[in-house]
Each structure stands twice: as C-alpha cells, then as structure tokens.
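job 3f2a | input accepted
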Amino acid sequence: MVKQGHYAGVQSNKKRRSIRQRQTKPVANKITRQDVSEFIQGRYVLTQRGTSDLVDETMQRFLSTWLLQATSADSDVWDMKIITQQTFTHIANQVPWQFCAVIVKQWDKLSHFLIKEVPAVPVATPIKLMQQVFDIKLLISQQLAINWYLTRFNTESQLATIKTTDISQLVKSFVAADEIVWQNVAVVYSTIPFKIKTDDVTTKKWLVKLNSLQPEQV
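job 3f2a | predicted structure (218 res):
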C-alpha cells in the first residue's frame, strides 16, 4: 500500500519548522544516508505545489515510495527509470487507475525536481542520477495493463495463462498518438471495480477521493 510516509508528518507546523531549520544549515553540515529520504521529501514540501490538495497528497505519497526504492540499495547512483518501474511494481494494483493519471500529468514537474535536488543533497558522496529521461507514458501504460490482469486473474494458475501479447494488446487499447487515453483506461478498469485494502482512515479517504475522479478530471 502507498503509505502516508512523510505526507502525514508534514501536516504538523512543528515538523515543517524542523525541516526548514535543518535545510537552512550550511551545506558543510553533511547529512547521513539514513536522512536522505526525509531531506528530499522536506525539500519537495517546501518547494512544490500541485493543482489541488488531492494532487499534492498523491505526489507526496508517490515520492515517498519512490525514495524508499531509491534508498533501499544504499547506492550513490540512482537509475530514475529503474526506480520508477520498481515503484509502480511495488504499488501495483493497490491504487486506482487515477493514481497513474496524476503521476503522468505531474511527471515533468517531479522529474525536474529530482534532477535538480537529488544531486544537491548534502551527503559525503553526491548522488548521481542515470536515465533521467525516459517515456513515462509507455512505462505507465504497460503497468496499467499488468495491474488490470493482476486484479482480473488473481490466482497463480490464471496468471500463468497471460501472454506477453495479451499485455501488449491491452497497452495498445490505452494509447493513441503516443498519449494515454484515460477514457479508454476507465472503460477497461470499470470491469474490475477498485477495492480498498487498508484500514488506515487517512489512506482510505485519499483513495476514495482519487477513485472518484472521472477521466476528464485527471
């Protein structure tokens, strides 16, 4: 599940002040590897704004999971494409299709933030970013197809019958002129109503709001 992560904490003014104070310290004061994720999320909250509270929350939750994947290998080199793929694989069908729509729309802004901020994190060895530019729409359309099959066929025997060509055909139905047609995605996903699989009240509210978005609203 896409957890609250840093999102819940930054709602507190005390937390915001604490983050702001840490990040106004001289760059000479290096942070530890364990603090990288929190540092970047703090920078995001301070410098980025979405088009709505729902978009802000969605992007902060996505970034939290993205950074979890990025920091898990404890490496000084981050491959943006691989980390993004791992993030969507980790999230899989725990979120409605509208989650992917928000990420696509906000991706240029988020990737610009990461390309600017990650190498500037004050750690002993600067973090380098690889594959900074890739086709996010292709990546997400493929994940949408995979997620649909994961939900539609939830037993190992059923999943074993899925072929690569099945995934490819579904991807093609989602895309026109290199753009994801969210109306098409909504129609396909209407065959498998989204089920919330968390007891966390805040996360439930977020997922309900996200799931209520219509194709023309994303």
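job 3f2a | The mean pLDDT is 88.
job 3f2a | closed
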